[in-house]
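Entry for the shared binder. Reason: the reviewer on the internal report wants the predicted structure included alongside the sequence.
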Amino acid sequence: MRDFFLIFLLLTGWAAESKAQTSLKQCLEMARLNYPLIQRYDLIRRGAEYTVANVKKGWLPQVQLSAQGSIQNRAAQFPEQMKTLLSMSGYSIQGMPKEQYRLQMEVTQTLWDGQRMTRGADVARREAGVEAAQNEVGLYQVQLRVRDLFFALLLVDERIRLNLDLQQLLQSNEDRLERMLRRGVAMQSDVDQVRVERLGAVQTGDELLSLRRATGKMLALFCGVAQIDSLEKPPLPIEEDAGKTGRPELTVIDRRLRLADAQARSLRSQLLPTLGLFAQGYYGRPGFNLFDDMTRRRPSFNALLGVRLSWSIGSAYTLRNNLHRIEVQRAEAENARQIFFFNNQLEQTQYRERIEARRRWMQTDDEILALRTRVRRAAEAQLLHGTIDIHRLLQEITRENTARIARSTHEIEWLQAQYELEMSR
């Protein structure tokens, strides 16, 4: 019953540990959501919404208040003969005053603006799209760092496991030599040499645990969790179409080209006329009734309503240069695309060569390890029969451990290169 309880505890503990394993996909998703750069998406979206809303407010009636006062050197007057004739009839004609003033309000309502506001809103959205794509490039770089930390931690975990196996192997040989020492068929120096190697392995294990804690803390900090207990060895990535590229850098280039198109359309819309209604009302003098102003010289209220068609050709002076500047921006974006494809091809070539090299090494790793294990076991048997000394056995144990480390390292590096190739597409 006691043995059954111990087995149950071991199985439940193993299941809990398996549940606590963190996959590479989970690390990438957690790092993306946890990194502060993710908050910029909402800021970019809100900024674009405010800009577009401000542009659309151009369709609202525009109200302008103004006050004006002036003094003229000359003003409209009646001829002297008419003034004399009117004065004989009892009318006092003073003429238009040289001091004039008005307090005015003008309301304008755009009916057609040549699509200026529509094009302006489109440019604002395109600019926000470029910023969002650049933000995605930053998050992609974060995911690359998380991927490298994940495989580095995976490699450290494998080294720790192999170090524990080495310690157990050295401990078993140390125990065997102590039994031989008690029977008088081994020397104390042989036991001491194995113990020294075991203690050295313990120190190496402590260094690996320290490295594991440091690497685990960095990965946990990226993922926004307290700690990363254990990692799940990722499966081979699914091979996709080699010609298909979904890198965020290309999205930035595509959106830069769309922004250039929107800017060109916005520039051309500046050459079109605008049509709108206007209403003016002012209080002051002179008013629209000039005869009344010349006879009574008192301020009056005046109002005017009409339709206005305006056409400014000032933007035509710089249109050609501005369009040329946009063409330069397009050429720069296409050049950036070519540079990206060139560098990306170099990266993928490097990753494929690394995959092929690790694959070739892995084909011989198993055979090398099997031979090293066989030689080590033979050395242990030879030591029991006294045909070799302890130095030879320690050499074979070290060589076998080196072969195990090389095999595990090549396998993890091969798997990492597979994901590097996948994420470079």
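Summary line for the report: The beta strands are 21-22, 62-71, 99-112, 230-231, 274-285, 300-310.
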